[in-house]
Structure formats: structure tokens, C-alpha cells
Amino acid sequence: MPGLSALLLAALREMCPQLVMNDAETYVSSCEFAYFTHKIMAACDMLDGYNDGIVINPEDCEFEPERLVVDKIACEGQKTIMTALMATVIRKIREGLRGPLGAKIRYGLTPVTNHGTLANITTGPDGTRAAYHIALPVLDNLLLPPGVNPTSFTPADYFALWAQAPVEWGWTLLTESTGFTGLRDSCTKLLSWHSSIDDTIPHEGTVEFSKRLQRHMSGAYKVDEFYPLFLAPGAGHCALGKDRCLRSLSLRW
């Protein structure tokens, strides 16, 4: 399963937005994330020539979140001013996570992707903001010691947990094998697709797996004969979103 290399590592990767916010001591609400996403989409929608709420290549969107600093909006009945710290959080979530030595361990979200899904910030009646990690049940049951709350993790805590996961669960994490000769030789055809604005699992991981498979099996043309990868612009996580072409694309192939 290339997009989700393993459930446990995916759960760790999905901590990225909350880790960034913890480190910045700035918690961006879902409403504020939605404002950034809306303005970035409005600025980049015409990059592909169509004003349709879909950006074919989100990576081409170079809109800087700092341009929205000091904008005033209404969120949950309160007036909110976009701050430089909020813009920094947006930028770092977009960049993804790197380990202490610089190796990328989590791809960032594309500019027009809704960052609020993984951030999952709730605002109480008194204005207090709290984060709830959507994959907490996985981490709580498989990896975390009793009573440990990952929403308060520092980067050092996170990387220690990342190193611990393969030690305890390495036997379950080997899900990225490129040994597809059996699939190819059986004349089976398997189509794979991933949304380019997936707000839960960044599509770059699936693209990276596809490229490794192509290098292992004599190039893209050979692999596409039995296992092609399609990127679906506008389709959210698990086909939620605006893309309506997935079924017809599959049938044509």
C-alpha cells in the first residue's frame, strides 16, 4: 500500500500540523485554515486556465501565506486578525517534516489543500484552543506509554517516537516492496490513483513509490501496462471532492 506505507508510520506522519503548531505555540483554527486555503485557491485557480476550484498542479501555486498577514476575518462569531505566526505555521506544514540530519520524513500538504483536517483544532466557549490528533487511537494502542499525550510533543519527542516505531513494529512496516513481478506475470492489471490535494496522506509518497517501481521494473512504460498511477486533481481523501473523472478514467484504461 504505497500511499499509506504502514498504519503506524502514517499515524506518526499525520502529527505534522500539530507538531508545527506546538513548536510555534500558535494554534490555527479550522476557520483560519479555511481562510488561507480559500485565498490561496482564489489566487492560483487560473494557473491551469480554468476557474473551477481545481488546480491541476498544486505545486505550481507560489502564493505566499505572508501576503494575508493583518487580514481581518470573522471566525466563530469572533473577529480574527491573520498573524505572521499563522503564516509561518502554514508554510511549515506545506514544507513537511525533516529529521535532525535533514532527511525528509513527511511530505507537506500542497498549498491548496485543507490543512485544518489534520490540525483538528477545536475552540472552546472561552476561546481556548485545543488539538486532537485524529490518529491518536492508533498511537495510544500501539506505541505510546500510558498517560502520554502526543498533542504536547516537542520535535525531539516526535523524532524519538519515530525511531522507536520500527524497533517495536518493524515486522508490520515492510509494505513498500517493489517486487511486482508476480503481478505482472499473472497478466493482472491494477490501477492506482491518489488525489493531488489529499488532506490526510500527501500524494508525493505514492508518486515516490511509483518512481521506485519504475526504476526496478524497466521504466514507466512497462509499469503502466499493468500498474499505472493517476493523480486526481480536485478529489479529496478517498475520492471526496470535486473530481468526477475517476470512474471514466479507470474504464478507459
From TrEMBL:
<comment type="similarity">
    <text>Belongs to the tannase family.</text>
</comment>
<keyword id="KW-0378">Hydrolase</keyword>
<dbReference type="Pfam" id="PF07519">
    <property type="entry name" value="Tannase"/>
</dbReference>
<keyword id="KW-0719">Serine esterase</keyword>
<dbReference type="GO" id="GO:0052689">
    <property type="term" value="F:carboxylic ester hydrolase activity"/>
</dbReference>
<protein>
    <recommendedName>
        <fullName>Carboxylic ester hydrolase</fullName>
        <ecNumber>3.1.1.-</ecNumber>
    </recommendedName>
</protein>
<dbReference type="InterPro" id="IPR011118">
    <property type="entry name" value="Tannase/feruloyl_esterase"/>
</dbReference>
<keyword id="KW-1015">Disulfide bond</keyword>
<feature type="signal peptide">
    <location>
        <begin position="1"/>
        <end position="17"/>
    </location>
</feature>
<keyword id="KW-0732">Signal</keyword>
